[in-house]
Predict the structure.
Amino acid sequence: MKPAVVLLSGGLDSATCLAIARSQGFACYCLSFDYGQRHSVELKAAEQVAKVLGASEHRILSLALAQFGGSALTDTRIAIPISGVQPGIPITYVPARNTIMLSLALAWAEVLGSHDIFVGVNAVDYSGYPDCRPDYIAAFEKMANLATRAGVEGIKLAIHAPLIDLSKAEIIRKGIQLGVDYGLTVSCYQADAEGLACGACDSCRLRAEGFATPGVTDPTRYRA
């Protein structure tokens, strides 16, 4: 089995992405990040998901992104929006987060001799983050092939974003087909220590709509 590095947050999308990578025959090396996010309980979910879906290895790295702030996810003084998904880039966007995470995934991939990185970004039912768009993924892949030994030696590295053009409902259908237990995942931006969701933030709304559209039972545990 070829090794692949899979970015795993513990949420719905990344769990589905891991299941897809496994279904394609990759040995999955999962990478999660403790970056000072207020919903750090997602890391416990990531550990469970990695175990249940048969990851070859799972590592959690610490990043001090909270020192910069600038996002409702890393600065508790900034309220999480709960009025519904709005146009534009929301305050829950974490500056440069995906670029930093993909760069570290790239470093591990080089050490593993892997030419494949999987990331569960989505540009359909999402909050408008600029680092979830197809153009961004294509640009990072181009950079990766310029910046690595393998790329210079002519071995192409691929950034796989299998969910990028799917609706949340389509992602859920795909995950169910692959045996993903979404009850293990945590998506809420302000989930409590038990993983209970608020039901009002953008992530909760998008997740709930994704389950409602195909008529699938929502396993999310809510506080109220």
